[in-house]
Specification:
Elements (H helix, E strand, L loop, with lengths): L3 E5 L12 E5 L4 E4 L6 H11 L2 E5 L11 H8 L2 E4 L7 E2 L5 E4 L2 E7 L8 E5 L5 E4 L17 H14 L4 E3 L8 H23 L6 H8 L8 H17 L3 E4 L6 E4 L2
Length: 258
């Protein structure tokens, strides 16, 4: 693979890890993936590293990945490409190819984390730039209604079918065994589903009821987001007819159907 530089955005946190990874691809002029927040110092570093920008590509429109795009576009004259473009941006359709900096990036629509999420598959090396579909450490947040677990699992399987050797994530370190990480992600979700079903075996439960047992080894500060992840599992199971809601319409208490 040709030159790949990570410029770490200054937005660390529980969900962004050390911060958002902005990827600069090529010796210049370059492609830029996920410019991150609208932080002038960060964007100056990106522009300097890029040595000219061919295009700015967004994996999705979340506020830790996309807001810096308009300012970077003004600085460099580059177009902004997105699957679900905002005003002034250009469409990035599934299956389209973006070339530049020695890379040939095929766009893979990978919904699940968000409906508009894409992964960029380099046709020269089979490496992938994964945004928030796969992180360098930990697991991706699936938060309904934008997050859809069934769609996410389909996206992981589509990525695994290609067998990428290396993953360049939106947060955290580079993953040097992409196939193993994708299999790990799928096993993790299968185990979570088993834990959710085991929790419901004791009777009707809400996501908040299930979290203390399933996430007993996690910091309680993360239990709120964890409940959203459990809800994503319950909604998938509900669509499959394996669980059903009980109580008032629109409530979040579920029970097993058998």
């Amino acid at each position: 693979m040709t030159r790949t530089i990570r410029i770490l955005a200054p937005n660390p946190g529980p969900f962004t890890l050390e911060g958002t990874n902005t990827w600069v691809l090529g010796p210049g002029p370059s492609l830029v993936v996920d410019p991150g927040p609208d932080d002038p110092a960060h964007l100056e570093r990106v522009a300097e590293a890029a040595g000219g920008v061919i295009a700015i590509i967004l994996t999705h429109q979340h506020p830790d990945h996309a807001p810096g795009a308009p300012a970077l576009a003004r600085m460099t004259g580059a177009r902004v490409l997105a699957f679900d473009p905002s005003p002034g941006e250009h469409a990035l359709p599934d299956g389209s190819v973006v070339e530049g900096g020695g890379f040939l990036l095929r766009v893979m629509h990978t919904p699940g984390h968000t409906p508009d999420h894409v992964v960029l598959h380099d046709l020269h090396s089979d490496a992938m730039f994964t945004g928030d579909a796969v992180l360098g450490r930990g697991t991706s947040v699936i938060d309904p209604p934008d997050g859809d677990l069934a769609a996410y699992l389909g996206s992981l399987r589509a990525m695994l079918a290609i067998g990428p050797p290396v993953l360049y994530p939106g947060h955290g370190p580079v993953v040097w065994d992409g196939r193993a990480r994708l299999r790990e992600y799928l096993r993790h979700r299968e185990e979570r589903e088993r834990q959710v079903l085991a929790g419901l075996a004791a009777g009707p439960r809400s996501p908040a009821d299930l979290v203390p047992t399933i996430y007993a080894d996690h910091d309680p500060v993360l239990h709120g987001p964890a409940a959203r992840s459990v809800l994503a599992h319950l909604l998938k199971l509900e669509a499959e007819g394996r669980v059903r809601r009980v109580g008032p319409p629109g409530g979040d208490v579920f029970e097993l159907t058998v």
